[in-house]
Amino acid sequence: MNDYLFGISHNCAIIALFTQIFHTKVQQKMHKISLKDWVILLTIVPTTIISLLVAGYLSYSRYSELDQFIYQRATSIISPLAISSAEPLLEKKRNSLRSLIGFSHRSQSDIIKSIAIFTKDNQIFVTSAYHGDTHTLRIKAGQNLPKRIQYDDYDDYLIYRAPIIDEFTTQNTNSALDMNIIGYIAIQIDKSTIKYAQQQLLITVFFILLAGFIISALFAYKLINSVTRPISSMVLAIDRIREGKIESRISGQLVGELNFLKNGVNAMAQSLGDYQDEMQRSIDQATIDLRESLEQFEIQNVELDIAKRKAQDANKVKSEFLANMSHELRTPLNGVIGFTRQVLKTPLSDTQRDHLQTIERSAASLLSIINDILDFSKLDAGKMIIENIPFSIRESIEETLTLLAPSAHKKHIELSLRVSPQLPDSLIGDAMRIKQVMVNLASNAIKFTDKGSVDINLEGNVIGNNLYRIRVTVQDTGIGIHSQQQNSIFEAFGQGDKSVTRIYGGTGLGLVISQRLVSEMQGNIGFESIESQGSTFWFTFQCELNTIPTVQLPAPESLCGKSILYYEPHAASHLATSEILAGWKMKTTCISQRSEMDLLLSNKKMLASFDFALIGHDVTPSALNDVKEFIFALKDIIPSIHLAINSNSPSLHEALISSGAKTCISKPITMQRLSKTLVPTLTSESNNLIEISDQKVPIKVLAVDDNEANLKLIKELLLEQVNDVTTATDGAKAVDLCRNEKFALIFMDIQMPVLDGISALSIIRQQTLNEHTPIIAVTAHVFGEEKDKLLDNGFNSFITKPIDEGMLHHSIYEYCDSTLLASRPELIVPLPGPVVISSRPQIIDWKLALQRAGHKKPLAKDMFIGLVNSLPETKANISEALISQDIEQLKVLIHKLNGACCYSGVPSLGKVTHELETELKRGIGLDDLQPEFFEFFEQIDLVLNDAEEFIKKI
């Protein structure tokens, strides 16, 4: 039986193998299965599977028949013997039983190995084989005598046992259960004959299957030779045709449909050959036509080249015209504005003063238009550079709105500013361009709003690692924008009202300049507007978070826990100021309705609990009396009353203060202005500096610069923050110092004689004691590509000129040993003075010069005088270099002047010098830079003209 099971499992394994092969084939992509594979799959595999199934079924039937045969034969032998043995066993006739079982043994010797008769007590009575193993025939101890025929199956034999019954006694009892078993007979059946027959069966089946598989394979091979080979030859012929060998043909006589296929392929090849010949004739004709067209194109290209040169010449003339007109217009305008302001300082009648103020406003407006056109042309030419410098977002926006406030107050418009408390103040970006966009949007809102309010809101969110996106919203209640005009609002020179009777002026460039500036700052700009209901303009820009915060006015600790009554009817101003007061942890009672205020005024006991009162109100003729009533009702109860009004009139402020208010400020209410109002002793208007800690960082710093003034300034600034500063005037001297001394930090200029900063850094890193010392690049000019180049060359960081304490503090804090800073109090740097935004470019800015010189007046004066004395020679040298087209000499001279301008308070000259150096480094030709050089020489002349009088003043 085990052999049979082994055979069945073998057949199943073969079936499983072929099934797996078939399944794998089917899983593959159909275009990867060749015709040969298909022939095998459809002939050999099905034939093999069917043969295995049929052979398995037949062999299983025959195998079972052989097993059944031996069981039946053994039963037919043992049953008669058991019946015949009953009487001799009862009568103890051994010879009779021996003869009986001996005869049976001999007659069935092919399958019987031994016969034995056992008594009821399991003792051998007689056996047919004297030398047989009767132990295997006997019932095991503890087992009952068999009551019917039983057998035990072993590997090589069977043991059959049948009971010997005393039939006479049993019949008398009439009970089958009480039959008298007097013994049992056991027969040992040999299975070798049957097993041999079964093995022969399996071998026969195997050879039959093998023969069937071979025959099927032969038929498959024949089919493959008859079908696949001709098809393969056709495939090769088609490949040759595809490669361009059209003359290829399929030869030979094929069978049936293959012959039709061969004829079809040959016919296709013939057609392709004919088509190729026709196509070649068409190509030849097309080539002739193309040559004629190329001749025409060449003529047209020559004409286009001539037209292009004319266009370039026209563009050059336009740029020269723009620069010349800018020079010619701004020069007299600056004179008109300057002398008008001088005359305004003299005693004048009211009529004369009004006329002169009108002249000044008109000239400033014309100058603003010219500046807009220049900015537009720079943006259009891609020459606008976005800076990345630390700045205070709140300070920048507050300065902008402070300048715009008078125009809003003149129209009695409520101007409010809200900066989200969650917005960080210290950022890195281009504050000047942000303020320029802010001015454009806010001034437009004020210009197109006759009543109501202009509300400005700033919010921000984090978009990356130390990267913020800031959204500025300017909402007004003005005239709005008509739906037909909204699509063209951002077009150059576009106006909402283009009629000749339009009320509002302007160039129409403000919004398009703002749009392009915002795009340069990786932001967007948009608006929503409803005609006659107002507009909401918004813009976004990206800034980095400054890890070294700029110095801010600290929150007034004396106000913490103080109670203040705040009245403000305007919702936007109410929210903005409430957030400031809440940030100072004041106990604020906010009122926005007149009825609530009247109710509170009637409760004097409650009023007495307030330390401050802040009243926000407009100052229209009808509302002025309400303000005075508030003052009269509160001045005897609340000790400190402060007003915030939408007017900057000094006489009106004085009148309200004389009515009982302690202070009166102009809206919008800013954090700094409100802090000075509530705690006037916190800051002093005459002193714009916070005292710097005397405790310095105990380190030695090396400063390298070839410009004597720059080196003097950076040394002075460093000595305020570190103990020891060593200077060098070129890279070679710096290398010599680094070979002999160890420095904690090195500030290295880039362009220097003898040895430049990059070469000096390479030597310091490899051959000195300062191979691991942080080295900071210091340059008056650096743009995007150069920043990456400096860092790739090994500089740890870079700072740009002009240098101030904040930038040096940032570098020292970041790259100095933290253990040296642990015990040092936080460094406090001077507060920057207010940056003035004016439509007129400022020639000399003494506040800026003081700031750049660390608020050291003698140092600032020396540096300014040194610049002025060097300007004539510099101008002459640059003119000579321009005439000789010596670009390298120009770069050196412009870079040196740029570094000097950074510390001398000449913002306009510094700006145009910086732009010139940028364009020269970018490889812009001198012809394309003629407008910039016109402006450059103009700014030099303006500085020289104003310098003498300015030096006398300082």
Can you characterise this structure?
This protein is an alpha/beta fold and 954 residues long. It contains 30 helices and 22 strands. Strands 6, 7, 8, 9, 10, 11 and 12 form a seven-stranded mixed β-sheet that branches. It has a five-stranded antiparallel β-sheet with strand order 2-1-5-4-3. Strand 15, helix 17 and strand 16 form a beta-alpha-beta unit. Helix 9 packs antiparallel against helix 10 and helix 11 runs parallel beside helix 12. 30% of the residues are buried.
**Averaging pLDDT over every residue, what do you get?**
77
Separation of the first and last Cα atoms: 123 Å
The helical percent reads 55-70%
The low-confidence runs, each spanning 5 or more residues with pLDDT under 50, are: 1-19, 173-178, 498-503, 681-693, 822-840
